[in-house]
Amino acid sequence: MALSSRLVPPGVEGQDLLRACWAGTAVFAAVAIATTAFPDPMAVPIAVVSLGLLVAGCAAMLWAFQRALQRSRYELIGVGGLYFLAGCAPRSVRLSMMAAVATEVVVALAAASVRPFTASAFGILVPVYALGLSGAWGARHGIFPPRPSDDPTSERVDPSRNGDDV
């Protein structure tokens, strides 16, 4: 099985987001490795790439949050499901997105550890990118349980009673 089919599972929704996530992760990894080898000439590129991915990740997170607010009228959406894809995405998608987050964290920490007090520290901001795209995937394609009806005729249970009938 090719590496690309493991990173972007075939036949799942949102492959564009998965591809974008891994493309950003690959660009960051390449620039971080180059920055570790050549810290002075690569200071500006690592800062630009890291800040660019941070901004893109923040935009994706905000879009995901806005979309989740709309969907939450009819579905029960939690933060763990939205951004970490817990229980709302196929296993292959969740593993791919969380692997991208983990890869970004490991590369950022490794680069900053090898070259402390340099521009490599900008890499610590990058995992927001994969997490934001993960949230965008969850908001766009995630499957969440329906919200219970707010029908006033339906039976309401006092949450403080814990189901006890007294």
Could you explain how this protein is built, in words?
There is one protein chain. With 166 residues, this protein is mainly alpha-helical. The protein has one domain (13-144). 61% of the residues lie in helices and 0% in strands. The protein has six helices and no strands. It has helices at 3-7, 15-37, 43-71, 79-84, 91-114, 127-141. Helix 2 (15-37) runs antiparallel to helix 3 (43-71). The protein is elongated and about 65 Å long. It starts with a helix and ends in a 25-residue tail after the last helix. 37% of the residues are buried. Residues 156-166 have low confidence and may be disordered.
Secondary-structure-based class equals mainly alpha
The quaternary structure here is: single chain
Number of helices: 6
Poorly predicted ranges = 156-166
* Content of β-strand: under 5%
Q: How many separate structural domains? A: 1
Rg over alpha carbons? 20 Å
Strand count, sense and barrel status of the largest sheet are: none
Q: Assign an overall shape.
A: elongated
The N- and C-terminal alpha carbons lie at a distance of 60 Å
Mean pLDDT: 89
Number of strands: 0
- Into which percent range does the helicity of residues fall? 55-70%
- What is the element string, with H for helices and E for strands? HHHHHH
